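Raw record, unedited: C2H2-type domain-containing protein
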Amino acid sequence: MPQQLLVCKEEVPPEQQECSSSLDQEEPEPPHIKEEQEELWTNQEAEQEPQSGSNPQSELLFSDDGSDDAEKPSSCSVNKNTGEKLWSCSFCGKNFKLKGTLNRHMMMHKGEKPFHCSVCGKGVTWKHDLNIHMRTHTGEKPFSCSLCGKCFAQKEHLKTHMRVHTREKPFMCTVCGKSFTRKEHRKTHMRIHTGEKPFSCSVCGKGFTRKEHRKTHMRIHTGEKPFSCLVCGKGFILKDYLNRHVRIHTGEKPFRCSFCDRAFNDESNLRAHTKVHTREKTFSCSVCGRSFTRRAGVSRHECAG
């Protein structure tokens, strides 16, 4: 005789359904972008223990339809094998064991941010996110690397950092095969292939693949040079430029030619020097066609043509 399914109409009061077991809680997933950059916002989806997608072993018992998407009600289904209730999100279809967990998940879709930082006033959807955000004010970094001792505010950031030591790169570019430690880095890399430059300069209109590159570029227009030499006081727009300049004072020449004994304080100078050995001349005069190993050779060239 086929099993009969009864319609359930929330016999359990909502306040009893709000409680959730600590077993449902996991560390959140971090967002974007530099290798060790610590963002404040985390995706609380990971701690909701959703059972995503449709469940072939569960049958929908009731569902209400609303005209306003923002007020779409939830629906409940029961697993025919275990008899366990599952609450389904009407926006994305994810399933949850507790209706209280679903209600907290729905706040993300509605843009509700009931938890506010007492220091800066920033609002977040989840209390867990507020606790993590507060670490930016307190400086607390409870998760430390067992290999190098570096500390992090979030467990997921430590997990990502460990790939520096293990050299694990699970995110691969489908075009060129290059691998990355983080999904966000692969997304940024893909713009090289697509030509997408979503960050444009408001002054000259030049486009950039990364927001950080636009920020650096803006210093050309503002004249800002935040990196100064402690020896002579000269300023630079990039720290790399400062490091290269300091070698003039220290005499350090870490870039050595593999063909001869010459060494250079800058890698670009080594590349230009190597062309003397390989006889590669990549720069040519547009008037007479004479070729040079360096672009500066073209500009200094007195064309006889």
